[in-house]
Amino acid sequence: MEEVLIPLIVFSSIFGVFYVFLTTRNKERLSMIEKGADASMFLTKKQDKGYTLKFGMLAVGVAIGLLVGSIIAETTTLPEQIAYVSMTFLFGGAFLIGNHYIELNKK
Fold first, then answer.
1. Are 103 and 50 in contact (CB under 8 A)?
2. pLDDT tens-digit map of 50-73
3. How many domains does the chain fold into?
4. Which residues make Cβ contacts (< 8 Å) with residue 22, sequence separation at least 6?
5. Same domain, 38 and 62
6. DSSP character for 27?
7. Which of 10, 19, 40, 87 is the most exposed place for a label (fewest CB within 10 A)?
8. Beta carbons of 64 and 94 less than 8 angstroms apart
9. Percentage of residues in the chain with pLDDT exceeding 70?
10. Residues 65 and 37 in one domain
């Protein structure tokens, strides 16, 4: 019974937080429009944050890290857990640093 309650509570809590956030935001916007506030403040500016590039490069880095970790675990006496974790973090971090330099060059 407890195995069912924990995910149910977690997902209902997340839903509740989003519901309250969206309804509060909607009420706030409606009250500001009724008071005559400028509606252009509700428009969000489209800015390319590069999230897709960042997550894509992170995924590639993690995949290469897992591959290299597998090769190292099979060919050396390094423990398997250390090989996988260290290479995953090493290559994931390296690709995030590479993403940072790509973003700097865009500007």
1. yes
2. 788 889 999 999 999 999 999 999
3. 2
4. none
5. no
6. H
7. 40
8. no
9. 88
10. no
DSSP state of 77: S
Distance from C-alpha of 105 to C-alpha of 44, rounded to nearest angstrom:
25
Q: Which residue type sits at 49?
A: K
Q: 74 in helix, strand or coil?
A: helix
Structural domain that includes position 10:
2-42
**Same domain membership, residue 36 and residue 55:** no
Per-residue DSSP letter, 46 = P
Amino acid code (one letter) for 92:
G
How far does Cα 100 stand from its chain's mean position? 16
Residues 10 and 28 in one domain: yes
pLDDT for residue 19:
94
3-state secondary structure of 82: helix
Q: Are 53 and 99 in contact (CB under 8 A)?
A: yes
Rounded Cα distance between 61 and 55, Å, is 10
